[in-house]
Amino acid sequence: MLEIRPLDAYDAPRLAELEKILFEADSPWTERDFTEVFAQPHNFYIGVYDPESDHPEKLIGYAGLGILGPSGGHECEIQTIGVDPSCQRQGIGRMMMDNLMYVADELRAPVFLEVRTDNQPAIRMYESYGFSQVGLRKNYYQPSGADAFVMVREKKEHTPS
Asked: Pairing state of beta strands 111-116 and 75-83?
């Protein structure tokens, strides 16, 4: 049974390891990068753990949401999302997206992100959550020089029960 829980500095070594695997050509985050982001109170980071995994840390997926702006006027940004390649295509990315979107919906906040223009599986997933392309950032990812689409999901209006 997969578990989802908040990430902290203890997870930084495994996160950096996954970053090297997933984003080798585009300046993967380091342990220090993750430690610094966890120290910020406006960030919400979660991890998916598989108690049955062969990897000692058992962390197989991670996602982060930055929460920006004043109360009542929040905007959110998906800062990162990644799944161990051996565990992809099993719904783990969607599990994390469900959690990130729940937080954004509770805040009644729009959500922004950048995604490589050649990452069709991620683009399709984001579109299924209501994201649309609103811009293009040329040479966004470095050092590869890959372009990124800017995507946004408008805030969900709260409907009283």
From this structure: parallel
Q: Two tokens at 151?
A: 């995507």
Q: What is the pLDDT of residues 11-25, one digit of tens each?
A: 999 999 999 999 988
Q: Which of 49, 126, 154, 157 is catalytic?
A: 126
Three-state secondary-structure class, residue 154 = coil
126 classed as catalytic:
yes
> Domain count of the chain?
1
Of 77, 114, 129, 157, the catalytic one is 114
Q: What pTM was computed for the model?
A: 0.89
| 56 domain residue, yes or no | yes
